[in-house]
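Researcher: Here's the sequence for the chain we discussed earlier.
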Amino acid sequence: MAPESLTILVAFTAGLLSFLSPCVLPLVPSYVTFITGMGLDDVSRARRTALVHALLFVLGFTFIFVALGAGASAFGQLLREYRVWIARLGGVLMVLMGLWMLDVIKVGALQQERRVHLSDKPLGYLGTVVVGIAFGAGWTPCLGPTLGAILLLAANETELGKGITLLTFYSLGLAVPFLLSALLLDRFLGFFQAFKRNIGTANRLAGLLLVLVGVLMFTGWFERLAAWLQPLTPAFLVERI
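Model: Thanks. This is the structure I predict for it:
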């Protein structure tokens, strides 16, 4: 597994865990009904319409996340001669965010609500894109630590395109389950009822992931681990990274 494919795996996993976080998963039905303008029963019957709105919502927050990734990579390139120290600082920050998610430490700034509230959705499909942009620009505290960790990885990349790729895969990790939920909302509600007792566990797993990656970044073992795993990466995937 090449270094790029390892960071992509981490980014996609972080996106999935972000979807399962306490500040995202319970709100999925509300977001779906808000962007579609339909009730739960109507959404389940009009799946094509729900899917179109969900795709546009995903497009909106992906635009914001990718733009942040590009900015983080550009900043990292300006300071590329200090790349080792950026990696170490990023590792420390990632560990701190992971410890916060594990409730080991308390950070007042992360306890404050940062979600953008829209009382009335703009009309039409363009309005759905606007809501997605608002979601991406004002992510909740639960989304902030995992997204911030991926931005730190992007800042440590040597090429702008790699940072954009990382945030694209993070967005995919968040987007894929959201699209499935919008398409199969009735099944999502059943899944949520069964899974909601495990939301805290998913959040702790995300915290552990951040602590692990942060330690690997600080010690320089992240790239070594990727080099050891490189033979396991399929050749066609290496060629496309």
